[in-house]
Structure formats: structure tokens, C-alpha cells
């Protein structure tokens, strides 16, 4: 088993971020995203341990595929899709409903799967839209977002509760939650957030741009787009 948890993909675009020494600044959370793409596993492990495994980073697909060990040195290595594991927010079910054509309702429940306890009075908030609520006595919550067409996108749903590690779930598009989360499953019309599962994972990674994506961005910049 790897000595540090594998990060979760957050969906932000590396090319949209402002460059700084050693990485870039995420425009959503304002954290530094470290460029680990040319680092050895020993270097990644050492730096992450120095920061309590909380550093977000940009990794090469091979690093993610061989998480926990050095990438094999092979010129003929065929890239495989990187497995997405370990989510800061364990998403069991998700859905949304609309009261009007320009409003969004996100309902859910916060619980501890280890004890089966539903957690009351947990703080639940959409960070970028500055919307928050608390769970009721049964651990249920409801967030009503008006003017969805002009709402900030993407957004992060964060859950804060007593001595549990904070849970964060990144949504690239709140209007299509079921389409933007690869580990989302539609069931019973509610978002279930397990505060006990995978609680050690606090870091995220961003997709490493391909040569084609970098070239497209450069060409657009030439034409002022």
C-alpha cells in the first residue's frame, strides 16, 4: 500500500492557472498546485510528508498509474487511463431538482458509515457561490441556489463537522452534477456524504496538458483569444 494517499482529480485546467515558481496558482481555491510531473516517487513522497500530504499537484499520467512506486523506465510503455481513486468527499449518490428554470436545489445527507450515525448540525457550504446551511437532527440538508444561469462555476461543496476532517467535492458544472462527477451514482434523489471514508485524503491533482492542448492554447494566444 502507498505510504501517502492517491490524490483525487479536481477538474481544474492547468493552462488556465497563473504560473509561479514550482507550479501554478489555482484560480478556484487559490492554493499552489505543485508541478510534480518530472519528480521521482521519492521526491513526491518526501515533499508530501513535509506538508502532511496536503499538497495538490500536476502529475504525469504514468505517475498516477504507478502511484506509490517509481515509474518503470521503458520507451515502449503504453499509457493507460489513470485510475481515479480516493475522494476527499465520498459520493455515494447525487441528484438535483429545479423549482424554476433558473434555480437549483441540492439535497443530501451527512453520515458516518463506520457507525451508521447520521450527523446533525454539520456545516455544508458551496464555497464560490457563498451559500451555506447546516444539517438537521437527521443529518439532512438542502441548499437552494437561485439565478443558476449566472452562478459561479465551477464550485466546491464543503462539509465541516466537529473533529472529522473537512470533506470537499468539486463540481465543474452544478447544472449537470451527474455528468461532472465520475464516481457519482444516481439513487433516491439525494447526495450522501460519508465523513468517515477515505478521510486521510486531502490533496487533489490536475490533468497534465497534452502537447496538442498546449499548442492549441498557444495558437489562441497569438490571435488574442
Question: Mind explaining what this structure looks like?
Answer:
This protein has 225 residues and is of the alpha/beta class. The chain has 2 domains: 8-85 and 202-222, no CATH class; 90-194, Carboxypeptidase-like, regulatory domain (Immunoglobulin-like). It contains 4 helices and 15 strands. It has helices at residues 41-50, 61-65, 177-180, 211-222, and strands at residues 8-13, 18-20, 23-25, 32-35, 56-58, 90-91, 103-112, 117-118, 123-126, 131-134, 140-146, 155-160, 167-171, 191-194, 204-207. The strands form 3 sheets. A 6-stranded mixed beta sheet has the order 1-15-5-4-3-2, with no helix packed on it. Strands 6, 7, 8, 11 and 14 form a 5-stranded mixed beta sheet that branches. Strands 10-9-12-13 form a 4-stranded antiparallel beta sheet, with no helix packed on it. Strand 2 (18-20) and strand 3 form a beta hairpin. It is flat.
Question: Could you provide a short overview of the structure?
Answer:
By secondary structure, the chain is of the alpha/beta class. The protein has helices at 41-50, 61-65, 177-180, 211-222, and strands spanning 8-13, 18-20, 23-25, 32-35, 56-58, 90-91, 103-112, 117-118, 123-126, 131-134, 140-146, 155-160, 167-171, 191-194, 204-207.
Amino acid at each position: 500500500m502507498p505510504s501517502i494517499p492517491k490524490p483525487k482529480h479536481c477538474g481544474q485546467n492547468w493552462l488556465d492557472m497563473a504560473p509561479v515558481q514550482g507550479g501554478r496558482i489555482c484560480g478556484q481555491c487559490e492554493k499552489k498546485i505543485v508541478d510534480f510531473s518530472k519528480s521521482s516517487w521519492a521526491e513526491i513522497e518526501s515533499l508530501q510528508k513535509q506538508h502532511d500530504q496536503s499538497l495538490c499537484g500536476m502529475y504525469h499520467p504514468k505517475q498516477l498509474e504507478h502511484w506509490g512506486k517509481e515509474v518503470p523506465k521503458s520507451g515502449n510503455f503504453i499509457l493507460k487511463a489513470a485510475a481515479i481513486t480516493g475522494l476527499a468527499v465520498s459520493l455515494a449518490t447525487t441528484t438535483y431538482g429545479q423549482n424554476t428554470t433558473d434555480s437549483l436545489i441540492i439535497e443530501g445527507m451527512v453520515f458516518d458509515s463506520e457507525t451508521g450515525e447520521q450527523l446533525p448540525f454539520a456545516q455544508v457550504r458551496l464555497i464560490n457561490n457563498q451559500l451555506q446551511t447546516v444539517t438537521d437532527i437527521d443529518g439532512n440538508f438542502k441548499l437552494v441556489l437561485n439565478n443558476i444561469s449566472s452562478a459561479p462555476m465551477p464550485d466546491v461543496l464543503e462539509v465541516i463537522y466537529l473533529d472529522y476532517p473537512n470533506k470537499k467535492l468539486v463540481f465543474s458544472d452544478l447544472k449537470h452534477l451527474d455528468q461532472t462527477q465520475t464516481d457519482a451514482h444516481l439513487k433516491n434523489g439525494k447526495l450522501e456524504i460519508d465523513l468517515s471514508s477515505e478521510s486521510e485524503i486531502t490533496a487533489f491533482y490536475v490533468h497534465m496538458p497534452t502537447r496538442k492542448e498546449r499548442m492549441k492554447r498557444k495558437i489562441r494566444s497569438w490571435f488574442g483569444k
